[in-house]
Design brief:
alpha+beta, Arc Repressor Mutant, subunit A, 16% strand
């Protein structure tokens, strides 16, 4: 993935996480990275270094909550959207869709110079 693409995805990471948790609540970090990889056909690979700060920020903002469970004698932290997170997800997805429509309009504009 190019550096430009990485920057675009990085700016959308929290929205991606919120969207995933909206469709499948109670996901743990590694599961989120694998789901993104699967959905994007390996085009987007989220590193732990990018994922966990984003999850911690979403938790601090009250958009996600965590639950620690024991799985095979190991603690695993699961993330779930809060009601506030559902509203934030809806708002961010709408803004992102509007942005994409505007970008597509700009990129498809046929500049006619006379």
């Amino acid at each position: 993935m190019s550096k430009n693409n990485q920057q675009l995805y990085k700016g959308s990471l929290q929205t991606i996480i919120l969207e995933l948790l909206h469709h499948q609540e109670n996901m743990y970090g590694y599961e989120i990275t694998q789901k993104v990889k699967e959905i994007s056909n390996n085009a987007l690979q989220i590193t732990e270094g990018a994922l966990y700060p984003a999850l911690h920020k979403l938790e601090a903002d009250g958009f996600v909550e965590t639950e620690v469970r024991m799985v095979k004698n190991r603690k695993r932290k699961y993330y779930k959207l809060t009601d506030k997170g559902v509203k934030e997800k809806t708002s961010r997805v709408a803004a992102l869709k509007e942005y994409l429509i505007n970008m597509q309009t700009i990129l498809n504009f046929d500049l006619k110079l006379s």
